[in-house]
Specification:
This protein is an alpha/beta fold and about 260 residues long. It has helices at about 30-45, 70, 110-115, 140-150, 150-160, 165-175, 185-195, 200-215, 220-245; strands at about 1-5, 5-10, 15-20, 50-55, 95-100, 105, 120, 125-130, 165, 180. Helix content is about 45%, strand content about 15%. The strands form two sheets. Strands 1-2-3-4-5-7-10 form a seven-stranded mixed beta sheet, with helices on both faces. Strands 6-8-9 form a three-stranded mixed beta sheet. Strand 3 (about 15-20), helix 1 (about 30-45) and strand 4 (about 50-55) form a beta-alpha-beta unit. Helix 4 (about 140-150) crosses helix 5 (about 150-160) and helix 8 runs antiparallel to helix 9 (about 220-245). The longest helix has 28 residues, at about 220-245.
């Protein structure tokens, strides 16, 4: 288990659970907490036994974004969360990470949720660009990732109005991938992570990498990229996997 005062990271089998632990600030990230989150994610990436991560927050909230009290103090310098390699939402990780969202995922917390591969939201979760009311712009990737995920019209609505988007609407527009009962988001995210980790890893990672790489590419170039990412997985495991299928494994809709 890796921990700091503000961020903890622990193993549950092949799943790494990373928890933002500043409940007194609705898990807003000050500069040390942001740095600790980056360190926890890098440790997850470096651990060959860790297959999927789950990102969550303590005390009933996911994350309220950057710590505005710290931001208002003289001398506080925030790295842009997405533009800087030192930022917590700079680029996708090399392995999947799932957001387990209870309570508020707002402002930079929305950016953190968007940075994750999947979002499991409690039915009481709330998403939104709440920093709109304080004149603070988004620098966490939300203005790029949100339109790509839910479409330009819906994204502009959220970015310009700053209105709260509750879990049911988030699911309907594609912002949340799963909606679960209050208090169960973490358990549901861990269950999903274990399911993903149960598949042959190279092929899953190749398909995931291709999906991220294709954004903005012409079809022909994107398909060439897909072939590139698939090549290693095919050489390493596709033939044996196809043989298992031919022998009867995974038929009739089974994922086992």
């Amino acid at each position: 288990m890796i921990s700091s005062d503000a961020v903890t990271s622990e193993q549950q089998g092949v799943v790494t659970i990373i928890t933002i632990n500043r409940p007194e600030a609705r898990n807003a990230l000050d500069i040390p907490a942001s740095q600790a989150l980056v360190a926890a994610c890098r440790a997850f990436e470096a651990d060959n036994d860790a297959k999927v991560a789950v990102l969550t927050g303590s005390g009933g909230s996911f994350c309220a974004g950057a710590d505005l009290k710290e931001m208002a103090s003289e001398g506080a310098v925030y790295e842009p969360w997405a533009a800087s390699p030192k930022g917590p939402t700079h680029a996708p990780l090399s392995k999947p990470i799932i957001a387990a969202v209870e309570g508020h995922a707002v402002a930079g917390g929305l950016g953190l949720a968007l940075w994750c591969d999947l979002r499991v939201a409690a039915e009481t979760a709330v998403f939104g660009v709440f920093c709109r009311r304080f004149g603070v712009p988004m620098s966490d990737g939300s203005t790029v990732r949100l339109p790509r995920l839910i479409g330009m019209g819906r994204a502009i609505d959220m970015l310009t109005t700053g209105r709260p988007v509750e879990a049911a609407e988030a699911k309907a527009i594609g912002l949340a991938d799963r909606v679960v009962p209050h208090g169960t988001a973490l358990d549901a995210a861990i269950e999903l992570a274990e399911q993903i980790a149960g598949f042959p890893e190279l092929a899953m990672l190749a398909d995931r990498a291709s999906a991220y790489a294709q954004a903005g590419l012409p079809d022909a170039e994107a398909i060439r990229q897909e072939a590139f990412f698939a090549q290693q997985a095919k050489q390493a495991g596709a033939q044996s996997g196809a043989a298992r299928f031919a022998e009867g494994e995974g038929r009739s809709g089974s994922l086992s």
